[in-house]
Design goal:
By secondary structure, the protein is mainly alpha-helical. Helices cover about 80% and strands about 0% of the residues. The protein has a single domain, classed as Hemerythrin-like (Four Helix Bundle (Hemerythrin (Met), subunit A), Up-down Bundle), CATH 1.20.120. The structure holds fe (ii) ion. The site of fe (ii) ion has 6 residues, from helix 3 and helix 4.
Length: about 140
């Protein structure tokens, strides 16, 4: 069983965004697996690099999507993305300078980045879409 598990409660109802969240979870699980298997620092750093690149790619797409639907809290959400991006970067730096990374800590951190962010921020996009549908129906 993977360390971080996708469930339908994480779905924001937009297929492309959900697929990217699933991919992020997949990369995070590979990173945790690499650590569990005691793979060398280079392998670990390579997956971490992939995680960082994909995070930036996904956040850009998600921000573009929010812009396209007129999401009112875009700036707040972007700030949250910036904090997460900085955390991945800081973590990458810690690994680079050879700091010891504890498995449990990394797992909790990744869960917090991904699942925590989806639940606390991304699902608000779903709520917004639902309220917009209701309003549009009301106006029709
Ligand atoms: Fe987000």
């Amino acid at each position: 069983m993977p360390n971080i598990v996708w469930s339908d409660t994480l779905s924001i109802g937009k297929t492309e965004i959900d697929a990217e969240h699933k991919q992020l979870i997949r990369i995070a699980n590979s990173l945790l697996r690499a650590m569990q298997e005691g793979r060398n620092k280079n392998d670990f750093a390579k997956i971490l690099h992939e995680l960082r690149e994909y995070t930036v790619f996904h956040f850009n797409n998600e921000e573009e999507y929010m812009r396209s639907i007129g999401y009112p809290d875009l700036n707040k959400h972007m700030e949250e993305h910036n904090i997460l991006k900085r955390r991945v970067k800081d973590f990458q730096h810690s690994v680079f300078i050879g700091e010891n990374v504890e498995f449990g800590l990394l797992r909790e951190m990744l869960k917090d980045w991904l699942v925590g962010h989806i639940l606390s921020c991304d699902l608000l996009i779903k709520e917004y879409l639902a309220s917009k549908d209701v309003k549009q129906e009301g106006q029709a």
